[in-house]
Amino acid sequence: MSAVFRSRQATVRRGTIVWVYVALVISSLASLVPLVWMFLASFKSVGEIFRSPPTLLPEKPTLNNYQDLFQTVPVGAWIVNSATTVVVATVVAVIVCTAAGYAFAKFTFLGSKLAYALIVGSLAVPFAVILTPLFAQLAAFNLLGNPLGMAIPFLAPPLGVIAMRQYAVSAVPNEILEAARMDGAGELHIFARIAAPLLAPGVVVVAVWAFFNMFVAYLWPFVVAFSNEQFTFTAGVGALASGLAPRPGMAIAGAVLGALPTLILLVALRRYFTQGLAVGALKG
């Protein structure tokens, strides 16, 4: 009887696993529908985009949306602005979040708990609340209308610090740090030569998140830009979809082009990204 019962249990478990995989496949395909529609719609005319009932495949594929995008708006300037802000924000955010997360995870110092509590609490403050005072501060330093001013609010993201702290707690054993200290290694040497390599998967996760966070930012770059040429790519594409004279075809084409960098980055770093998320979820 016990063997029959165990056999039935195994059959039920296999059946459950099959249905779980079926549900995951269906949900994954459903999440791709908007991306597929956006890609196909970029080859449609404006009339066909808003046709009712809608069509999936373009009846008369055209590249006019892409041609108009590159010929009528300063896409080149947008790309340069986005590249500059993204590189600056990502590099600085990775350095700040890694160092701060490691410090909060492995050191106890005066005010450390209060400082970390303030960082966690800052997540509850909407960006719109600090938009006006931040704008006034950057205006006083003449940092508006340039890529550096656009990147400043993203240089020390609280969520990145919290994620790196959680990852450092589990990824960097205290025994290794103590052994290095007993051998006479300094704290900077320990961090650079021992902790940093162990934190590499977490660094990749923070880097991808910081890249995505800056690249898709719309409100702040839109506010601090003084002209159309000073927009980032995301702000420029967003402006095409709004305003008094929206250009939906060009906006969809721009959205397709804007999705490529993040997709390429995720595919290229998927192994490290998955490893970083898994370690943080299982051990954090």
Task: Please provide a written account of the structure.
- With 284 residues, this protein is an all-alpha fold.
- It folds into 2 domains: 2-41; 64-283, MetI-like fold (Orthogonal Bundle).
- 75% of the residues lie in helices and 0% in strands.
- The chain has 15 helices and no strands.
- The protein has helices at 2-41, 46-49, 64-72, 75-106, 112-121, 127-140, 147-151, 158-171, 174-182, 187-198, 200-215, 219-224, 233-240, 248-268, 270-283.
- α3 crosses α14 (248-268), α8 crosses α15 and α11 packs across α15.
- The protein is globular and about 70 Å long.
- The two termini are 42 Å apart.
- Mean pLDDT is 84; it is low at 280-284.
Number of distinct beta strands:
0
> What is the radius of gyration computed over CA atoms, rounded to a whole number of angstroms?
24 Å
Percent of residues in helices comes to: over 70%
Rough outline: globular
Query: What is the helix/strand order?
Result: HHHHHHHHHHHHHHH
Low-confidence runs of at least 5 consecutive residues: 280-284
**Strand content of the residues, in percent?**
under 5%
SS summary, helix count: 15
CATH fold description of the largest domain: MetI-like fold
- Let me know the largest β-sheet: none
Distance between the termini: 42 Å
* CATH architecture classification name of the largest domain: Orthogonal Bundle
By helix and strand content, what is the structural category? mainly alpha
Specify the CATH homologous superfamily of the largest domain: MetI-like
| CATH C-level of the largest domain | Mainly Alpha
Overall mean confidence score, pLDDT? 84
Whole-number tally of structural domains: 2
